[in-house]
Amino acid sequence: MSPLRVGVAGLGTVGGGVLRLLDQNARIVAARAGREIRVTAVSARDRGRDRGVSVTGMHWHEDPLGLAADPDVDVVVELIGGSEGPAKALAAAAIAAGRPLVTANKALLAVHGSALAAAAEAAGVALGFEAAVAGGIPVIKALREGLAGNRISRVAGILNGTCNYILTVMREAQKDFAVVLAEAQALGYAEADPSFDIDGVDAAHKLAILAALAFGRPVDFAGVHVEGIRGVTALDIAFAEELGYRIKLLGIAKETAAGVEMRVHPAMVPKAAALAQVDGVFNAVLAEGDFSGTIFLQGRGAGAGPTASAVVADLIDIARGASIPVFGARTSDLADTPSVPVQRHVGPYFLRLMVVDQPGVLADVTAILRDHGVSLESMLQHGRKPGEAVPIVLVTHETSEAAMNRAIARIGALAAVLEAPALIRIEPS
Ligand SMILES: NC(=O)c1ccc[n+]([C@@H]2O[C@H](COP(=O)([O-])OP(=O)(O)OC[C@H]3O[C@@H](n4cnc5c(N)ncnc54)[C@H](OP(=O)(O)O)[C@@H]3O)[C@@H](O)[C@H]2O)c1
Predict the structure, then answer these.
(1) Are 78 and 101 in contact, with CB atoms under 8 Å apart?
(2) Atom of ligand 1 nearest to the CA of 81
(3) 3-class DSSP state for residue 319?
(4) Is 275 helix (H, G, I), strand (E, B) or coil?
(5) How many other C-beta atoms can be found within 10 angstroms of the C-beta atom of residue 424?
(6) Cβ(49) to ligand 1 under 6 A?
(7) pLDDT digit string (tens) for 404-420?
(8) Which among 55, 79, 140, 281 is the best mutation to test ligand 1's pocket, defined by most ligand atoms within 8 Å of the CB?
(9) What's the gap in Å between 70 CA and the centre of ligand 1?
(10) Ligand 1 in reach of 13 Cβ (< 6 A)
(11) 49 Cα nearest atom in ligand 1
(12) Distance between CA atoms of 291 and 187, rounded to whole angstroms?
């Protein structure tokens, strides 16, 4: 059989990894694909850069759009990045030219995934994006194919390795966020501009994609509630430990009576839960199916090797001629289930207040919570320093986000409450 000819746009971390994998594992890949997978053309900005991989004999395109028109390219692999600009233009051009597209670009799919899926479907070409979520963990395949027979009620994951690394070191070394972020940047675990990671945007891109697959509906990035980890303190991590929880940046998509809730935020997870035990740069995804029960996948969510592994899995599917709808069902069969705003969330909460240690403060706080129908499961207060600031920690039973916010607005206005209350949602598993 003739080789599958691949054009790769972007020869950075992931592009270099893909070329290395296809070279090193050429025989294994050819056996599984049923034919050779050969890179025939590439594109990057700087032709002179030594990338540690050979591009000899491959067409070099100054403009990545050239790959979509190259007669020696059967499949285009987009590894440039960014939701707009050359990545978006190349994706559209490849599909319009009737070429299957493989991409690792979660930003592109979160923002334009529905339009690209519709275009790919109309053109009758494959669109592979296993590498876009959780790197080397085959979570797209697991949700779209392995769990295809299930009604899925919840997907929850640790979807950003940088955040998980920072939170892990904060806990283990009892250091503050800013110190650990600076160390992570020096070690290359965080970008010079880390905002996409630490503000939760990267995890939200991935969650929007997972939610589309899990709930069979179009991607709705705008419907994801996003909070990052800048506000997580060493103090709250220590309180979480004492109460039997770990703080993780989670992406959670959950079916509710009103629609699909999608949230990315620091969450307290019981220490015994599988997600609580995923540390360092690792990623993990948990999915609950009505027939499968809970499945849990863990692995490396980024890096040249794991991400290349996912890209090549998509190429092997395309080489075999596998044809699976982009988001698991044809565009016309996707549901119009709405996204539910976070104000409708119901669950337990951790609330930490810094208060002046004086008689009556706790009574005032608990009276406000009672007025808003919020009941308490437990409370922590260490030592006494009359007249000075002390932390009080309260853990609530299940309550609505709206009630909690109204109560906090009143609590924060009390004269004895010295700073904005810290509120962290608790995720039971
Ligand atoms: N890194 C990871 O671990 C990882 C994991 C999962 C998903 N991803 C996704 O994979 C994609 C690539 O990430 P990466 O980490 O490999 O990025 P990267 O190391 O920054 O590489 C980007 C590549 O794109 C090339 N490029 C940029 N603008 C271009 C243009 N206008 N025309 C042609 N080439 C252009 C760059 O060329 P030069 O080399 O000449 O500058 C570089 O080779 C992103 O969508 C990212 O979100 C990455």
Answers:
(1) yes
(2) 45
(3) helix
(4) helix
(5) 22
(6) yes
(7) 999 999 999 999 999 99
(8) 79
(9) 21
(10) yes
(11) 40
(12) 43
Distances (CA, A) of 58 to 7, 22, 92, 272, 319: 9, 14, 23, 51, 19
Beta carbon of 14 within 6 Å of any ligand 1 atom: yes
Q: From the CB of residue 240, how many other CB atoms can be counted at a distance below 10 Å?
A: 25
**Ligand 1 pocket member 305 (CB < 6 A):** no
Q: Mean pLDDT throughout 1-22? A: 97
Q: Is the CB of 307 under 6 A from ligand 1?
A: yes
Residue 303: CB within 6 Å of ligand 1?
yes
User: For position 386, what pLDDT does the model report?
Assistant: 85
Summarize pLDDT for 129-142 with one digit per residue, the tens. 999 999 999 999 99
Distance 79 CA to ligand 1 centre (A): 5
Atom of ligand 1 nearest to the CA of 310: 6
Read off the tokens for 112: 């334009």
Active site residues: 206
* Residue 306 CB less than 6 A away from ligand 1: no
In this structure, what token pair is assigned to residue 423?
């509120």
Q: Which two tokens stand for residue 341?
A: 């705003």
Contact 169, 142 (CB under 8 A): no
Tens of pLDDT, residues 203-212? 999 999 999 9
Ligand 1 centroid distance, CA of 330 (Å): 30
The residue type of 374 is V
Residue 95 structure tokens: 């599909």
Whether residue 42 is predicted with pLDDT greater than 80 in this model: the reply is yes
Give the pair of three-digit tokens for residue 134.
């959780």
Residue owning the nearest CA to atom 8 of ligand 1? 104
Pocket test for ligand 1, best of 13, 46, 137 (most atoms within 8 A of CB): 13
Give percent of the chain above pLDDT 70.
100
Q: If we measure between CA atoms, which residue out of 246, 240, 243, 236 comes closest to residue 271?
A: 246
Please report the pLDDT score of residue 429 as a whole number: 87
